[in-house]
Amino acid sequence: MPESNSLTKQHLHISMRLNGEPREVSFASYKTLLEVLREDCDLPGTKHGCELGECGACAVLLDGEPVLSCLIIGAECDGREVVTVEGLAKDGKLHPLQETFADCGAAQCGYCTPGFLVTAKALLDRCPNPSREQIKESLSGNLCRCTGYQQIFEAVEASIARIAACRVSGNSEVV
Ligand code: FES
Ligand code: FES
Question: Which ligand 1 atom minimizes the distance to the CA of 55?
Fold first, then answer.
């Protein structure tokens, strides 16, 4: 049997923390994290775009940092923490970024939106009050064909006050 065939049949089993919960998952050893999430974890929110590391549609958080899941091999995620767009809402309540993206028209076709949301969340987690330039820089690897970006930058800015209000009111579980 050709070596490539035996590689595709080999399965791996890993443990990770996925959207706040412990998760065991088995998958073919060649799969990327993007494929593992969509095909083996039933989490289709993370999008297939270019699969070349150029569009940002597949962004997720790996140990709190945004990564392009099309460029990460699933095997690398054993013992690590992964957050996808499905992990942003808590107990049926949207994350403030999700609310402001909806309010500001920052999601049109929505294909790019999961990647923008998780990348913006990582920015706001490490820098709670970024400037417009910092927002632009941090989102520069995410491409959007629909919005022209202005509404996306405005949505991230609008979320800053909502996140602060959640923290002041003690309603911080979602942020
Ligand atoms: S699908 Fe990963 S960067 Fe485009
Ligand atoms: S909303 Fe359509 S690609 Fe961004």
Answer: 4
3-class state of residue 18 by DSSP: strand
Question: Which among 133, 128, 125, 97 is positioned nearest to 113, based on CA atoms?
Answer: 97
What kind of fold does domain 96-168 have according to CATH? DNA polymerase; domain 1 (1.10.150)
Strand, coil or helix: 2: coil
CA 19 to CA 12: how far, in whole Å? 20
11-86 maps to CATH 3.10.20.30? yes
Ligand 2 center from residue 57 Cα (angstroms): 10
pLDDT in tens, 42-53: 999 999 999 999
Cα 44 to ligand 1 centre (Å): 14
